[in-house]
Amino acid sequence: MAVTAFDKEALRRKYLEERDKRLRPDGNEQYLRLRGRLAHYLEDPYTPRTEREPKTDHKTVVFIGGGFAGLVTGARLKEAGVEDVRIIEKGGDFGGTWYWNRYPGAQCDTASFVYMPLLEETGHMPTEKYAHAPEILEHCHRIGKQFGLYDDALFHTEVEHLEWDETHSRWRIRTNRGDDFTAQFVAMGVGPLHVPKLPGIPGIESFRGHSFHTSRWDYDYTGGDPSGAPMEGLAGKRVAIIGTGATAVQCVPHLARACRELYVFQRTPSSVDVRDNRPTDPEWFARIATPGWQQRWLDNFTANQAGGTAREDLVMDGWTDISRRVRAKVAGLPPAERAPEKVLAAFEDSDFEKMEEIRARVDSIVEDRETARKLKAWYRQLCKRPCFHDEYLQAFNTPGTHLVDTDGKGVERITGTGVVVAGREYEVDCIVYASGFEVGTEYTRRAGYDLTGRGGAKLSGYWAEGMRTLHGIHVHGFPNAFVVQPAQGANLISNIPHNITESARTIATIVKHALDHGFAAVEVGKQAEDAWVELLMSGPGTLMRSPDCTPGYYNNEGTGAGPHSWLNVGYPHGPSAYFRYLDEWRESGEYAGLEFR
Ligand code: NDP
C-alpha cells in the first residue's frame, strides 16, 4: 500500500488544526481520580481478599510491585544467591499489568520473543508472535513459582510508609494490612500505567446502568472470559465504550461480536497498522532457541530502533518498520547533506508516508465512507501510542457497531440512561471506560506512598522539579533503594521489559556486591547523579513530548512536559548504546558513582 504523492504543507496544516481542536487548559486535571464515591472502580474483580496476620519481621530485600519488574528482579536476586526476597503486590497475585488487564482481546503489542521476560530461563515457547493476556499472566505465575517468589509474597497489600532508618541502615515498611517490618534494601517497580483514571465528563456519577474500567473487566456482567469466550451476557445489551486508545483497539472487536448495539465514543482516532499475528512454529522455535537466544533477540530488536545500525531484523514488525524507514530515508541523503535539519526532514517525510499508508488502510477496510473518514488519524505516528490490529477497523463493518466521533471534543455529558454527544443522547445499558491510566502525575502519587530518606528528606520533595537519578535506578539521599522504570536509562518505550531486565541485573549485582563485602549501605553520590542528569539533558529530547503533537499522555495532554515528566528522557546516544554502557559499568566491578559504606 505504498503512497507516493502528498502535499506536505497541507498535511502539516491539517495536523495542527486537528491538534488545536483537542487542546484544553485543564490538561491532566480533566481526569477523575478514583477515590471516595468512585473508589469502587478500583475493586479487584478477580481474586477474593484473604485475611492474614500482619508481618513484623526483617528481610534482606523487599520489592514493591509484583509485575514483570518485581518478578525479574526477584529472579535475578535468587540467581545471585539472595534468598530472602519479599514481593509486595496490591493485586491478588503476580502479573502487574497482566493481572489487571484481562479485557477480551488483550495481548502484547511487542513480539512475545522479546516482550516476555526470562523465556530462556523458564523454557517457555510463546504460542504466538503476539501472545494473548492469559498466556502472559500464566508466564508471570511460572516465573513466580520457578524462582520461589510466592513463598514470601504479600498480595492485596499496599505500602503506605517507607522510611530509612539511618541508625540501623534499613528501611521500615508499613502497609495497609497492618504490616510493620524492615528490609536492608527496597526496590520498587510500581509500573508506569497502573492507576486507572476516568474522564471528567459531567454527569458521570449519575449513570444508573452498569459501568466499569477496562482494567477491572466485569465478566460476571458480560459473560465470556479473558481467553475470548463469547460474552453472552451482552447479547441483548446496548453498550458504550469511551476511548479509542490501545486498549479499546484490542477489545472493540470482541464487544462488536457480542453486543446488540455497540457505540464507540471517539475523541482522537488511533493509528492502527497491520498486526499480522501468527502461531509459533515449534520447529522454527527449536532452531532459533539456541543458548543466549533471547538476549540476541532483545539486542537485535533494540538495535533496530532509533539510531540503530543492525544489519538484520529478527522481529520484523511495525516497531522496527518505523526505524527502518527513517534509516532508509537518511541513507538516501548524500553524505554531505546529513545535517541535523535534513535528517529531521527525512524523518518527517518517512512519517508522512507511513501515516498516509495507515489512513489508506482505513479506506481499504471500512465500508462506510463517513466512518472511514472519521477513523483516520491526523498526527505523526509517534505522537500517540501506535496501535496494530487486524480486526479493529473491520469491527466497524459489523451491523450494530457505531462510531460516535466527537470531533476532538470528547463526550459532552453522561445522563442516568446514556451518553450525550453533540446534543444527542445514546441510551445504553453499560458503559465501558477505556480511558487509560494516570501518567505525568507525581511518582509518589501514583505509587501511593512517599519515601522518607536520609535526614527525613521526602522523595516527592527531592523530585519536585523533576526526577533525578543515576541510570534511572539510584537516587541520592535514598540509600539501599532502587527504582525500576525506563526513564533516565534506555527509555526504550517499544519494549518496556528490556529496560526492566537490565535494571534487574544491575540491582542483583549491587545487592550481591554489598552483601559479599559486608557493606550496610550503598548510595549514589550527588556529583555522579548531577553529572548523569546533565548528560541526559544534552540529548535531543523526543518527538513524543512535542507540543506540536495532538494531546495525549505522551505530551502531558498537550501542556508540554510538566515538572513530573520533563526529565523523563533516555540516554542521549540511544538505547543500544545505553545497554552496552550499563553492561560495562556492571562488569567493571567498580560501579562508578555509587558509594558503599
Ligand atoms: P489511553 O490513555 O491510550 O486512551 C484513553 C482513551 O480515552 C483515549 O482514546 C482518549 O482520547 C479517550 N478519552 C479520554 N477522555 C475522553 C473524553 N472525555 N471523551 C471521550 N474520550 C475520552 O488508554 P489505553 O488504556 O488505551 O492505553 C494506555 C496505554 O497502555 C497504551 O498507550 C499502551 O502504552 C498501554 N497498552 C498496551 C497494550 C499492549 O501492549 N498490548 C494494550 C493496551 C494498552 P484522546 O486520545 O483524545 O485523549
Keyword list:
single chain, 21 strands, FAD/NAD(P)-binding domain, binds NADPH dihydro-nicotinamide-adenine-dinucleotide phosphate, 597 residues, alpha/beta, 32% helix, 19 helices, 2 domains
3D architecture notes:
Belongs to the FAD-binding monooxygenase family. 32% of the residues lie in helices and 15% in strands. Strand 5 and strand 6 form a beta hairpin. The strands form 6 sheets. Strands 2, 3, 4, 5, 6, 18 and 19 form a 7-stranded mixed sheet that branches. The mean pLDDT is 93. The chain folds into 2 domains: 188 residues, FAD/NAD(P)-binding domain; 295 residues, FAD/NAD(P)-binding domain (3-Layer(bba) Sandwich). The protein starts with 7 loop residues before the first helix and ends with a strand. The chain is of the alpha/beta class and 597 residues long. The longest helix has 26 residues. Helix 17 packs parallel to helix 19. It is globular and about 70 Å long. The structure holds NADPH dihydro-nicotinamide-adenine-dinucleotide phosphate. The site of NADPH dihydro-nicotinamide-adenine-dinucleotide phosphate (NDP) has 28 residues, from helix 8.
